[in-house]
Amino acid sequence: MITIRTATPADVPQILFFVHELAEFEREADKVVATEELLHAAMFGGSRPDAEAIIAEIDGKPVGMALFFHNFSTWTGWRGLYLEDLYVTPDARGHGVGTALLKHLAGIAVDRGCTRFEWAVLDWNVNAQKFYQSMGAVPMDDWTVNRVSGDALARLAGRG
Q1: How many CB atoms lie within 10 A of CB 86?
Q2: Which domain, by its residues, includes 9?
Q3: Left, alpha or beta for 25 (phi > 0: left; psi -120 to 50: alpha)?
Q4: Is residue 74 part of a domain?
Q5: How far, in Å, CA of 50 to CA of 68, rounded?
Q6: Per-residue pLDDT tens over the stretch 101-148
Q7: Strand-pair partners of 67
Q8: Using CA atoms, how far apart are residues 87 and 96, in angstroms rounded to an integer?
Q9: Which of 77, 109, 110, 130 could in theory staple to 81 by disulfide, Cβ–Cβ 3.0 to 4.6 A?
Q10: Cα separation of 38 and 41, whole Å?
Q11: pLDDT at residue 160 in the model
């Protein structure tokens, strides 16, 4: 049986383990610089967390997680829920864990008055795209994610 629960500080090592496995799957293993300390501070270190997570378990064993945070839409005037990472272990895929995580997050979004639930998916991950669309997600083909980081961020800020 799949159970979904809110992550606790004791889950931080497991969350970081899942982050590393996800990065490996996404062919970006060398990009992970997060530490347990950074994740703990972001999720549990202040009065308003930067991020939250839920853990999926089968028979008490962690088999997946979703890490999320709130965003805001000026068009709707309401906050939304942004899914940063969804990960299910290879042996648990195809058993409804991803579905359970997404449904749980949708419930959180509705309970918190969010008008949107959004996330990004890699262009090459066709299986994930099909799965998300089967859950009612609509690809935002007219939008391109932009990112400024590292030295470029410092230069843009006039500090590099």
Answers
A1: 24
A2: 2-119
A3: alpha
A4: yes
A5: 9
A6: 999 999 999 999 999 999 999 999 999 999 999 999 999 999 999 999
A7: 53, 85
A8: 12
A9: 109
A10: 5
A11: 80
Starting at the edge strand found earlier in the chain, the sheet holding 2-6 runs 2-6, 52-58, 61-73, 78-88, 117-119
Q: Are 130 and 136 in contact (CB under 8 A)?
A: no
| Displacement of CA 125 from its chain's centroid (Å) | 16
DSSP H helix total and E strand total for the chain: 5, 5
Query: What residue type is 141 in one-letter code?
Result: D
Total domains in the chain come to: 1
Interatomic CA distance for residues 17 and 23, integer angstroms: 10
The CATH number of the domain holding residue 82 is: 3.40.630.30
Q: Which of 50, 48, 55, 46 is nearest to 34 (CA)?
A: 50
Q: Report which DSSP code applies to 47.
A: S
In a domain, 139, yes or no: no
Active-site residue among 4, 15, 132, 148? 132
pLDDT at 56 over 90: yes
Round to whole Å and give the CA distance between 146 and 88. 26
Identify whether 132 is a catalytic site residue: yes
pLDDT tens readout for residues 62-97: 999 999 999 999 999 999 999 999 999 999 999 999
